[in-house]
Design brief:
The chain is α/β, with parallel strands linked by helices. It has a single domain, classed as NAD(P)-binding Rossmann-like Domain (Rossmann fold), CATH 3.40.50. The chain contains 9 helices and 7 strands; from the N terminus they run βαβαβαβαβαβαααβα. Strands 3-2-1-4-5-6-7 form a 7-stranded parallel beta sheet, sandwiched between helices. The N and C termini lie far apart (64 Å).
């Protein structure tokens, strides 16, 4: 006599069900893809960006709960945004900003100061203002890079700015605990920003990476978004830096 087989369900619960994710820099590229991924995992998303038109289009694409158009580097506007949020939030990802390259001796003092401090100041202001709005198990996810780890002509002060982010992240993780703080360090990611920076050299760069990267393809925004959502959902992760560059730093 045999017993009937027990049905086995392959369905799983969404990883971010009934949670709220704020994406600063959420109108395009990595931010938009993270919002899309978070929505697919059951989260409500709030998008922040500078361009109202792009923000509204992004919100329609992903079904965002709310949008806010302002410059995240404006400390007063950032503080007002978090103060006005109507409900507790769970996760904040910041993708705004990017590296600025150039020979050191051609940079003036103010420019060097800005490059070193811009991201640190932005991330610190986000942490200060988000802390009172986040649930205890919430997460801050910041963006850094792997390219700046190599010292070279033309890289300028970017290497120093890149090196500051991992210990900054770890220190914030200790100070904000039990909330978690993590850093994603990306290499080249095929985004609209990359296209704008490279112009006519974009396809050449893509082909170069396809030929040299260990993964045999170019890293895209969806790859980074998948990592970001995993960091949000895995409550054992804090104070760490997660590289995602397809092995670029090992073959460059």
């Amino acid at each position: 006599m045999t017993s009937a087989a027990t049905p086995f369900s392959t369905q799983r619960e969404p990883e971010l069900a009934e949670q709220t994710v704020v994406v600063i820099g959420g109108s395009a590229g990595i931010g938009l893809e993270t919002a899309r991924r978070a929505r697919a995992e059951g989260a409500d998303v709030i998008l922040v960006g500078r361009n109202p038109d792009r923000l509204e289009q992004a919100a329609r694409e992903v079904g965002a709960q709310r949008i806010a158009a302002f410059d995240a580097n404006d400390a007063a506007a950032l503080a007002k945004f978090f103060h006005d949020l109507p409900t507790p939030i769970d996760h904040v990802m910041v993708t705004a900003g990017g590296p600025r390259y150039g020979p050191l001796l051609e940079m003036d003092t103010a420019e060097v100061r800005d490059i070193i401090s811009d991201r640190l100041v932005l991330y610190l202001e986000v942490a200060r203002n988000a802390a009172g709005k986040m649930r205890p198990e919430g997460t801050l996810v910041f963006m850094g890079g792997t390219g700046g780890r190599r010292v070279g002509r033309g890289v300028g002060i970017v290497s120093a700015a890149t090196a500051a982010l991992p210990p900054f992240t770890a220190t914030l993780a200790l100070e904000l605990a039990p909330a978690r703080v993590n850093l994603i360090a990306a290499g080249f990611v095929d985004t609209p920003l990359s296209a704008a920076l490279l112009g006519d050299r974009l396809e050449e760069r893509r082909n170069e990476l396809r030929a040299t990267l260990p993964i045999g393809r170019v890293v895209g925004p969806a790859d980074v978004a998948a990592l970001a959502v995993h960091i949000m959902s895995n409550t054992a992760l804090t104070g760490a830096t997660y590289d995602i560059d397809g092995g670029q730093q090992f073959v460059s």
